[in-house]
Write a structure and sequence with these properties.
The structure holds two protein chains of two kinds. By secondary structure, chain A is α+β, with helices and mostly antiparallel strands. Helix content of chain A is 33%, strand content 12%. A five-stranded mixed sheet of chain A has the order 2-1-5-3-4, sandwiched between helices. In chain A, helix 1 packs antiparallel against helix 2. The longest helix of chain A has 16 residues. Chain A starts with 17 loop residues before the first helix and ends with a helix. Chain B is of the alpha+beta class. Chain B folds into three domains: 182 residues, Alpha-Beta Complex (Aldehyde Oxidoreductase, domain 3); 313 residues, Aldehyde Oxidoreductase, domain 4 (2-Layer Sandwich), CATH 3.30.365.10; 140 residues, 2-Layer Sandwich (Aldehyde Oxidoreductase, domain 4), CATH 3.30.365.10. Chain B is 27% helix and 25% strand. In chain B, the strands form eight sheets. A seven-stranded mixed sheet of chain B has the order 3-7-1-14-11-12-13. Chain B has a five-stranded mixed sheet with strand order 9-17-16-15-10. In chain B, helix 14 links the parallel strand 22 and strand 23. The chains are: A alpha+beta, B alpha+beta. At the A-B interface, helix 3, helix 4, helix 5, helix 6 and helix 7 of A face helix 1, helix 3 and helix 17 of B.
Chain lengths: 209, 762
């Protein structure tokens, strides 16, 4: 089963490493184990998990100044602070892709990205694909091909498709299957999702985003 | 628009007689995108997990980490003082001593039972300002447990010295034996006899949206938003648990992110949210974590099935004898179904025994055709093996045994059965004969094809009420209590109104799944939603149409018989007939709205309306790695009338993909040393991804034009689309490499072991 690589290679602008993040979530033993033996090297500076930090996030072209806890994920901030509930939590550990957003145009799991890590990057969510009330071409293709059932994973699927098509405007079916394989759909709408991505690729040829 | 016969109203409200079946339809059956597609692809659909209410708190649940333990002490002191914490709930809290899980002689457990019978049982709960704070505090609740011996292996649970789940032991009821004819005589008369033992996995539902409720009180009245398959069932159970009148409980279940059977029953989290919300005077959201859903939100039990079958040289079955057993978890439900052994094929001599076993694990819940895919895994592999032994084509052998009556139900006839057509027309569309003749391909990549048939055994709860309201401007409100799990219920029901009332589907607003504002519909499960609700909706639309035509007849001074509805208008018969839009009907303008109430009619007397299926699969097996790729699948489905070809196909493919998971990747693993689940996440529990799903999938609807099953001619779809999928893959694996995959899932490790054993045997 191909999955997207864990999104843990970011360097964090605020000195909060993923290790600190894990520790703050109660996986202290895991963090301790990865920190090495005491005294060997100086432990990295770890911010207090709940002490709020200032951050400016650029989401769907709009700048938001926020106070966030360092442990908050981008997904948490999008949903709970910015009210952008289109991005869905499915597993909150990078396994399902329901929270997929674009960061600088590349699909990323928002549940594995700390809000602080997103500073200085352009974040696009499903809401950001809309042109006012109008659906974007990838969204339209998903609607037309009935590329979902319960629709819960759909925003993530659409963002994965959007990222794929931005990088590869005319993907083959094999490329679509690979590119979309980091997004689970428990209803099993995969055959229709493939059709939707192909349709979206066609639609975008004519000047779609 | 096809003409509809109107019998005179027989008197009482909504008492119109049964309408004639549809002939050709204009809207029903079309490839229509969903009425709520915009909401679902724009991200604007509000699922229960998305809901934010002013002042809303978040709950987190403290769970027993052991397979079997007794709570000795709970210390909540630290948790209560943590940031954001508003309240802690334990079994000692006022109103929390709520009985849970009914046994024959009363309740077996409590909302917070100090006797924890499986990993993840609820011990306490915390409410805080944010979900993170609630989880922090839940971790800070100190619980002292006395660990107790446990049994999680169903093979060992019935041993005399096995730790007991309940006082009476680990056998749930007594094994049930069902017999017809004389199996010994049947086997004696057989030309070929096959006996095999199969094992199927515990499969987890894991819908994409976790189980979640939001509870809010208004005085003594409770509103709960729930990610559920049935608002009425949840309301009944919730009112019972909290001892409230039904009228005081409102359950809303609009957008929900999948259920597959796991969201049919009331969850403890819902009651916990309600109790905390009442005590704290604020709305409370209780959402499970993904890991929690693996522990406490149900599963499809594993089965061990020993099946013996005999057939004559020509393929006619002479006897079927089976023993089926499976673990229900720690509380009563059913783990097995032998229904297909008794009814899929004509067989005069049948005997089966079913046994339900208790173990220290989470209770099973219905999962997409409970018991049926597991039983199918055994039956359809045995039938395949008989065909091989007798030198018959597997399709041919199955065709030899097609019943037209239900042998399990006193030989009651089916209103229709397309099983034979599913097999024959499916075989043609798949290219079955040619595919079987193709060489398996030399080298380590071997191809094979397989077929499996199946049926579903539930015809639905015939009670449902729908209301259709036509407004003065010609727009329509459709009111139905049905939940839309993602199967397209809202869309299909709107299409029924569009068909009958001649209005465009986008002029129809669907109001659904809310016990305060919509009428009763049974839970969306058991493949009953469309076949139960569509006739009620059709009846309501017909009643509105009757009123429209009466009003128009007066206005136009024409007999009702000369009038019809089409494209949002009343049309007078004859060439160049006058056309009056609904919005120009004076009588409608004065009354502002016309309301039609429709009730579901009873099931046909003495007959059964059930769906059938045959699915074909082609696989490629890598004999070096044991990896199986499903190359293509064709699903031939007799679910009666296709209500919407787009959502029909989608649901069928979904059933196939879940079947693929059952066959190849999905399996709950409980650690024998600790009794704990080791793969309670989507990394280790393998749900099929797009790369696993078949590159080619084709759906072939077989519509027998059933005019008796109900007034729309549709039968169930969700479950029959799933039932034979796994077994078709198993039979294709056998065709490819010659080994019988008795145990599911057929992981690379298992298949490599089978291939190695085959090689040793030479």
């Amino acid at each position: 089963m191909a999955r997207k690589p864990r999104d843990n290679e970011h360097t964090c602008p605020h000195g909060v490493s993923r290790r600190g993040f894990l520790g703050s979530l109660g996986a202290g033993a895991v963090a301790a184990a990865t920190l090495g033996r005491p005294g060997e090297t100086a432990p990295p500076e770890v911010a207090d998990a709940v002490e709020p930090s200032k951050v400016t996030l650029l989401v769907n072209g709009r700048r938001h100044r926020l106070l966030v806890e360092p442990r908050w994920t981008l997904l948490h901030v999008l949903r709970e602070r910015l009210g952008l509930t289109g991005s869905k939590p499915g597993c909150e550990r990078g396994e399902c892709g329901a929270c997929t957003v674009l960061i600088d145009g590349v699909p990323r799991y928002a549940c594995l990205t700390l809000a602080l890590e997103a500073e200085g990057h352009e974040v696009t969510t499903i809401e950001g694909l809309m042109r006012g009330e109008e659906l974007g071409p990838t969204q339209q293709a998903f609607a037309a091909e009935d590329a979902f059932q319960c629709g819960y994973c759909t925003p993530g699927q659409i963002m994965a498709a959007e990222g794929l098509l931005r990088a590869k405007p005319a993907p083959t079916v094999a490329e679509i299957r690979l590119g979309m394989s980091g997004n689970l759909c428990r209803c099993g709408a995969y055959p229709h999702i493939v059709k939707a991505v192909r349709r979206a690729a066609e639609a975008r040829k004519g000047g779609g985003r | 628009m096809s003409p509809v016969c109107f019998a005179p109203d027989s008197g009482g409200g909504g008492g119109a007689s049964t309408p004639a079946p549809w002939g050709e339809t204009k809207v029903v059956g079309a490839r229509l995108p969903r009425v709520d597609a915009y909401e679902r692809v724009s991200g604007s659909a509000v699922y229960t997990l998305d809901l934010q209410l002013p002042g809303m708190l978040h709950a987190a649940i403290v769970r027993c980490p052991h397979a079997h333990a007794r709570v000795k002490r709970i210390d909540t002191a630290k948790a209560e003082t943590m940031p954001g914490v508003r309240g802690v709930l334990t079994g000692e809290s006022p109103g929390a001593a709520i009985p849970w899980y009914q046994g024959r002689e009363g309740p077996l457990s409590l909302l917070f039972d100090p006797h924890c019978r499986h990993e993840g049982e609820e011990v306490a709960a915390v409410a805080a300002d944010t979900a993170l704070q609630a989880h922090d505090a839940a971790r800070a609740v100190v619980v002292e447990y006395e660990e107790l011996p446990f049994v999680v292996d169903p093979d060992k649970a019935l041993a005399p010295d096995a730790p007991k789940v309940h006082d009476w032991g680990n056998l749930l009821g007594q094994p049930r034996v069902t017999t017809r004819g004389d199996v010994a005589a049947g086997f004696a008369a057989a030309d070929a006899v096959v006996e095999m033992t199969f094992r199927t996995p515990v499969q987890m539902h894991t819908p994409m949206e976790v189980h979640v409720s939001v509870a809010q009180w208004d005085g003594d009245r409770l509103t709960v938003w729930d990610s559920t398959q049935g608002v009425y069932a949840i309301r009944e159970a919730l009112a019972g648990a909290l001892k409230l009148p039904l009228a005081s409980v409102r359950v809303v279940g609009h957008y929900m992110g999948g259920g597959f059977g796991s969201k049919l029953e009331l969850g403890k989290y819902t009651v916990i949210a309600a109790l905390l919300a009442r005590r704290l005077g604020r709305p409370v959201k209780a959402a499970l974590t993904r890991e929690e859903t693996f522990l406490v939100a149900g599963n499809r039990p594993s089965n061990v099935i020993t099946l013996k079958a005999g057939a004559k040289r020509d393929g006619a079955l002479t006897a079927l004898e089976a023993r089926l057993s499976g673990p229900v978890g720690a509380y009563p439900t059913s783990a097995v179904s032998a229904y297909q052994i008794g009814d899929l094929y004509t067989c005069p001599n049948v005997k089966f025994e079913t046994t339900n076993i208790l173990i220290h694990a989470g209770k099973a819940r219905p999962f997409r055709a409970p018991g049926f895919p597991s039983c199918n895994w055994a039956l359809e592999q045995v039938v395949d093996t008989l065909a091989e032994k007798l030198g018959l084509d597997p399709v041919e052998l199955r065709l030899k045994n097609i019943p037209t009556v239900s042998q399990l139900n006193d030989n009651a006839p089916y209103t229709s059965t397309g099983l034979a057509r599913c097999l024959t027309e499916g075989a043609v569309a798949f290219g079955w004969t040619e595919a079987r003749r193709r060489p398996k391909t030399a080298g380590h990549l071997r191809r094979g094809v397989g077929v499996a048939a199946g049926m579903w055994g539930y015809g639905g709860d015939p009670n449902a009420t729908a209301i259709v309201t036509l407004y003065a401007d010609g727009s329509v409100n459709l009111n139905t209590g049905a939940s839309d799990l993602g199967t397209g219920t809202k869309t299909v029901l709107a299409m029924v109104v569009a068909e009958e009332l001649g209005v465009a589907p986008d002029r129809i607003q669907v109001e659904h799944a809310d016990t305060a504002t919509t009428k009763f519909a049974p839970s969306s499960g058991g493949s009953q939603t469309v076949l139960v609700n569509s006739p009620a909706v059709r009846a309501a639309a017909i009643e509105v149409k009757r009123q429209v035509l009466e009003i128009a007849a007066r206005q136009l001074d024409k007999p009702v018989g000369d009038l019809a509805v089409a494209d949002g208008a009343v049309v007078v018969a004859g060439a160049g007939g006058k056309r009056v839009p609904f919005s120009e009907l004076k009588g409608l303008g004065e009354r502002r709205m016309l309301v039609g109430v429709g009730m579901r009619h009873p099931h046909p007397e003495g007959k059964l309306a059930l769906p059938f299926a045959a699915q074909f699969a082609e696989v490629e097996v890598d004999t070096r790695s044991g990896a199986v790729r499903v190359l293509r699948v064709l699903a031939a489905q007799d679910s009666g009338r296709v209500m919407n070809r787009l959502t029909f196909n989608n649901q069928v493919f979904g059933g196939v993909v879940q079947g693929l998971g059952f066959a190849l990747t999905e399996e709950r693993v409980l650690d024998r040393a600790t009794g704990k689940m080791v793969n309670a996440n989507w990394h280790d529990y393998k749900v099929p991804t797009m790369l696993d799903s078949p590159a080619e999938a084709e759906c072939l609807p077989i519509d027998p034009h059933d005019t008796e099953c109900n007034t729309v001619g549709a039968k169930g779809l969700g479950e029959p689309a799933h039932i034979p999928a796994a077994t078709a893959i198993a039979n294709a694996i056998h065709d490819a490499v010659g080994v019988r995959p008795l145990e599911a899932p057929v992981t690379p490790a298992r298949l490599v072991a089978l291939l190695a054993a085959q090689e040793r045997k030479g």
